[in-house]
Amino acid sequence: MQRFAFIIHPLEAKRDVARKYPIARLFPERAIEWYLANAEPQIVCKVTGLRSMTGVEAEGWLILCPMTPRQLLSFPLEKVWEKLTRCGEIAQDLGAGIVGLGAFTSVVGDGGITLSKRLRSAVTTGNSYTVATAIEGAVEAGHQMGINPAEATVAVVGATGSIGATCAEMLARQVRAMNLVGRDTGRLDDLKRRLGSLATAKLTVTTDIAAGLRDADIVITVSSAAKAIVRPEHIKSGAVVCDVARPRDVSVEVAKRRKDVLVIEGGVVQLPGDVHFPFERKPGEFDFSFPPGTSYACMAETMALALDDRYESFTLGKEVTVRQVEEINHICRRHGFRLAGFRSFEKAITQQEIERIRKNAGRPEPIGI
Q1: How confident is the model at residue 277 (pLDDT cuts 50, 70, 90)?
Q2: Which residues sit opposite 178 in a β-bridge?
Q3: Could you tell me which of 43, 229, 282, 344 has the fewest CB atoms within 10 Å of its CB?
Q4: Distance (Å, whole) CA 312 – CA 341
Q5: pLDDT value at position 356?
Q6: 368 in a structural domain
């Protein structure tokens, strides 16, 4: 039996803590954050039923790091590392050979490098498989909206980050034009120069989200912003927006006001076997609003490496290479991981809904369907 662990954290203090402790709704956000800052990491649940198509089985644990995105990004790094190290030590005591970093725990500091040096267990951010599934999902959603990637303009928001840069590198060979959107003009220019010899797409850079998204048929957004940055007025009619960021980059106002835009969550994966997370939809427990047997790609990468007996720090730091993306995609397919359809704002989206959005936007018929 292979063993893994995955570190999670609350994305919104009041909402996520109240899922387990309803009384938290009575307290202000800052009071809940104070409680979290002084709380100890804990095991949320044991994951069972993961079984590869090769017959290998694995079990694992979700371990809660009690810090919000704001705390992870604003607290002294040593305090953050202490909490994450304690999470990793719990995983080691449970026999986990590899520890995955969820959401902002993979963003803070040096992307897991320091943590890997403090633990015996391997550490991975899961960013390689996140890139693979983000690209696959965005392209497939584009096809269903009648968008031919070879003729499309793609925008990558957060393009200079580890996930964004690799998404840009891989997609720049497949699309007509690409807008690289970020906060730092210098880093954007550096990325454009690096991609110049590899890309067939026309590349532009901008720090203005509205300008970067104005003509984009497909958007992949993967910034490290602590709140939504993509607004309804930014998005072109008929566009596909693949939101990989957690917390999400796309405002809920988009779902309310833009019935001509398809927003999907990036990196939702169907897991092999009969996987059971005990917290799923049980009153009084954490509920991550995922259908049974699915997870985000970053967690799936951790699981797949365990099933493959690859107890190594596969994806660390701020860089993700195309080779890593292609290798982890191959590993995941061999074990039976696959894209789990589409979700939008934590709800499954049906083919009928996609068809309605496509017609609202006046898009042509789906491609290859």
Answers
A1: confident
A2: 154, 203
A3: 282
A4: 29
A5: 96
A6: no
